[in-house]
């Protein structure tokens, strides 16, 4: 080994990235934690990784396609780079009904993350970009890689050429467009990762009008549309005029558990044109033909099965499972007195820890409760003070974690709930789902008793107010001052462990 | 922005004196099958675009995209094939153009994929996101199968959805401010992705070359290995061996010189070994067989042509730890960053297939399929040789590179298509050094290859 260095300078854009991509960073911390705590039962609510099996109807289709490739009749080689036409049309039919979107405008891919980079290659370095703050990190990171972003300003944590559209509780997680400078491209994700917020029809109309007035192009990420519970639009193309200003990307990952299988799509309307009138779709098609070679044929067969009548129902059931997880998480955090956003239209809960560094909170939660989350700061400066909790997981993990090895505290009058994280540290492995469930039962019971106007037996009141002095980590004192209440049983166990 | 740049220059529209009225071809063998691909609309047509009168955004078209002269080569060939099939609906068109595999995948491989798919429906067998670099057992199998004893470690391997995709991801890490050299002729994705990234200048019509690209001429005269003494220094050197389209495989001595050249110039070789297993000669199958290559090269390869995975999508790139930028920063770290940010791993199902490919049974099955295509190649080579053509390649790759001196390759392509209903690929699509050549691909059912050769004999007797 001579220790030869080439004369090729490192791409300065890569240097501007400063750190690894967010989710592998989380993985690394997970691994380190497991190494240090080999007996800990880690609960992963960090990376939004699906956990529930894919319905049979879909995997059977993929298995059959695989077997068919071993037959003369069933073998196919290169497919159309844009995707199998049946699948393209099924996507148009399923997701874009009534919007006039055609199969020709759909480009099947191996996932939204890959499509984002292909779009960036398409757009080139000389465009300006706006992102929501916080947002899915791939928009900013690819913007840096392609050379659009300018340099990172240490003070603000923002790249100089990127417009960050603040989305916080104060503006209902929709940016104030009246103060947003014009950019060529606007990345917009709804339902939002990480905040879980879904933009309303009116808000999206505002966005489309804004783009139109500015001659901008919206790159709309609808990967979580399947999680919408209310009337929020599931596609930007529900908004009149969107065809002339928007590209939409989406994915089977969270829709069908295809995170490892790899399938997604991008819609580029034929009406979308550059300033010289050249259709964007022609260039995107060129990228797809040159930088890509189509999604796997086996996987596309799976995608088609997802979009059959039975398939849609089956994947819908899985999405409902995760939605129920999200509900449990939201309720749990709420009951603990924490402000938790999202969870209703997306499989993420966005929990506020005012005044705290999100990486610190992430670390404390990981160290003390063995639950992996994602620090909000990883999604942009606007994510500081927040933690993203993902609702993907087995129900038992969610239930355990949502009380999260935290002591569920209730007051007798059920009016005030305080969280005590250090108790989790003190009572490793104690599952406080019980506490939560018992509290619920107690609620119901109280209600019944009031209705019956029966006398309450003292013994049945398992729950009482207790003050746990010094049970808080200093960092949580700010959030939840002194009053902590322990379930009696929990308290006894905690005390026995302490002694 | 001039729309005339959209008009094609490389597609010949002039008819040569050889083009006669189409002859009705009676296929001798009625059982000849046609690759039944759906006639999909190909949008890679470089036709002048009418100015739209409706609303336009204010976003400028990426100037790099505008530099591209026409659609990517193979969709263009497909477009011509489709147009031909529409024109002659009864003709039995045989595709020896796009290097598209035709033989079924051995069962040991597809059953592994089917089983993995089925396992995803079970709680124990379900997996979500995999490591972006690929599943460990597969990385390990690739390292030991292809790079055993060459000092390449498991974590130097990055599994992908194919070499073409990897080439663009490599371009993303290299960025716009690098210079590149390619063989001329070469697989079009190297130059096209370079144009898209902004590494090249404008296309110069008179020489059919992009500015700032170093074209390393590879001809019969120089044994299809460039005269390195005449090659200017570039940051990146793309080198494909066995070569697509010429079929030529570089010798150990030649590759040693190439590695030395890269070392002297501080360049990085992007070595494309997608056809290594088609080698009959004793030439190196990996650049890493050359001492010192780990400090100057990375290698990309694919399951496409070994396992018929052209539609399944699986490949890999090897980036040795010793490959460093001028400031000592490892290229692998940046490639890993791209893989984590611009990619999300190859499909778990396909990776299960890849692992099965590299089992003893899988390797044996793959070599049988490769042997089949090699026999096709022999048949095609023999045909052109017997017709008195200078036909190159064939021995170490599934391509035959036939010389038609003094002729426009698109004209020859058109004539062959028109008169024999056989699709080939015009050499100029691979660069100006391909002018005067036709690439005939050896992927096809045996009866189709035999039939095509019969038709060639008819045309050129």
Task: Give descriptors for this structure.
heterodimer; A: 499 residues; alpha/beta; Aspartate Aminotransferase, domain 1; Aspartate Aminotransferase, domain 2; 2 domains; seven-stranded mixed beta sheet; four-stranded antiparallel beta sheet; 17 helices; 15 strands; 12% strand; disordered C terminus; B: 461 residues; 13 helices; globular; coiled coil (chain A); aminotransferase (chain A)
Helix fraction bin of chain A: 25-40%
Could you say which overall geometry of chain A the principal axes of the C-alpha atoms support?
globular
Q: Which sheet architecture does the biggest sheet of chain B show? A: 7 strands, mixed
| Residues in β-strands, percent of chain A | 5-15%
Q: What's the end-to-end separation of chain B, in Å?
A: 49 Å
Principal-axes shape call of chain B: globular
Sheet of most strands of chain A: 7 strands, mixed
Multimeric state: heterodimer
Cofactor (chain A): pyridoxal 5'-phosphate
GO molecular function, one term (chain A): pyridoxal phosphate binding
Organism (chain A): Dovyalis caffra
InterPro entries (chain A): Aminotransferase_I/II_large, DapL/ALD1, PyrdxlP-dep_Trfase, PyrdxlP-dep_Trfase_major, PyrdxlP-dep_Trfase_small
Write the layout of secondary structure elements.
The complex is a heterodimer of chains A (499) and B (461).
Chain A: H1 12-15, H2 22-36, E1 43-44, H3 56-68, H4 85-95, E2 106-109, H5 112-123, E3 129-133, H6 137-146, E4 152-153, E5 158-159, E6 162-166, E7 185-189, H7 201-214, E8 217-221, E9 246-251, H8 253-256, E10 264-267, H9 280-291, H10 297-306, H11 309-335, E11 339-342, E12 348-352, H12 358-369, E13 371-372, E14 374-375, E15 386-390, H13 395-402, H14 421-426, H15 433-452, H16 474-477, H17 488-498
Parallel strand pairs in A: 1-13, 3-6, 3-7, 7-8, 8-9
Antiparallel strand pairs in A: 2-10, 4-5, 9-10, 11-12, 12-15, 14-15
Helix pairs in contact in A: 3-10, 4-10, 5-6, 5-9, 11-13
Chain B: H1 63-67, H2 73-87, E1 94-95, H3 107-119, H4 136-147, E2 157-160, H5 163-174, E3 180-184, H6 188-197, E4 203-204, E5 209-210, E6 213-217, E7 236-240, H7 252-265, E8 268-272, E9 297-302, H8 304-307, E10 315-318, H9 331-341, H10 348-357, H11 360-386, E11 391-393, E12 399-403, H12 409-420, E13 422-423, E14 425-426, E15 437-441, H13 446-460
Parallel strand pairs in B: 1-13, 3-6, 3-7, 7-8, 8-9
Antiparallel strand pairs in B: 2-10, 4-5, 9-10, 11-12, 12-15, 14-15
Helix pairs in contact in B: 3-10, 4-10, 5-6, 5-9, 11-13
Cofactor (chain B): pyridoxal 5'-phosphate
Organism (chain B): Dovyalis caffra
Pfam families (chain B): Aminotran_1_2
